Amino acid sequence: MAAARKKAVSKKAVKKSTVKKAAVKKKVATKKAVTKKATTTKKAVAKKTTAKKAVAKKAVTKKAVTKKVATKAAVKKKVTKTKTPAPVTKKTATVTTAKTVKKAAPAKKAAAPVATQGGFAPYMEKKGEEYMNEAQTAHFIKILEAWKTELMEEVDRTVHHMQDEAANFPDPNDRASQESEFALELRARDRERKLIKKIDESINNLKNEDYGYCNICGIEIGIRRLEARPTASLCIDCKTLDEIREKQVRG
């Protein structure tokens, strides 16, 4: 009986030990499962956070790229604005025109053509026109002939004036003043007589087609100079040199 009891007690002890081992194994298994779940959840959370970070980085890079593109587009717009002028409205147009009128230098007025000797209108040259052609020669012949007739009239007027006012004044002072007046008039008429000779020479040169050329260098004297001085036989350069020589000779 005692042996049977001992066996029963040992069996119970074995059962209790097996139950305890099973419970311990279950606890260990549950702990392992919990730790596995925790690790898996942690890994999942870490993966989610890394994915979120990657998405955030992508969004930041996209924003940077869009900003760069926007800045490039803005720069291009500025360049195009500077290159292409903005459409001007009517108000701005009036303002700009007023400013330009203020800033613009006053345009030089075209020199009015001076009347030639004898009151003739100046000759208007045409492009490609030959120097001293028929029209120009006729123009200068009219000027010279009108000038000659004017001088001849002055000579006749002085002769008649001297004949009319010639008288023997009893006062010697009056007689001296009259003689000085006549001397001045005769001197002026003498100059006009020499000028009439030059006019005749110029008319002969026009007929012989030698008029309008310098006697020293042979170049063209120029229409404007001839209209100012129709009896000119020297160009402006040769005339200035001649005047300088005269001054040096006179001292």
Q: How would you sum up this structure, described in words?
A:
By secondary structure, the protein is mainly α. Among the domains are: 35-84; 134-250, Four Helix Bundle (Hemerythrin (Met), subunit A), CATH 1.20.120. 74% of the residues lie in helices and 0% in strands. The chain contains six helices and no strands. The longest helix is centred in the N-terminal third of the chain and has 82 residues, at 2-83. It is rod-shaped, with a radius of gyration of 62 Å.
Short description:
The protein has 251 residues and is mostly helical. Helix content is 74%, strand content 0%. The longest helix is centred in the N-terminal third of the chain and has 82 residues, at 2-83.
Q: Find the CATH topology of the domain at 134-250.
A: Four Helix Bundle (Hemerythrin (Met), subunit A)
Q: In angstroms, what separates the terminal alpha carbons?
A: 181 Å
What is the tally of beta strands? 0
Supply the number of helical segments. Answer: 6
Average of pLDDT: 74
Query: How much helicity do the residues have?
Result: over 70%
Shape: rod-shaped
Q: Structural class, from secondary structure content?
A: mainly alpha
Strand content: under 5%
User: What is the chains' assembly state?
Assistant: single chain
Report the major sheet: none
Q: SSE order in H/E notation?
A: HHHHHH
Which CATH class of the domain at 134-250 is shown?
Mainly Alpha
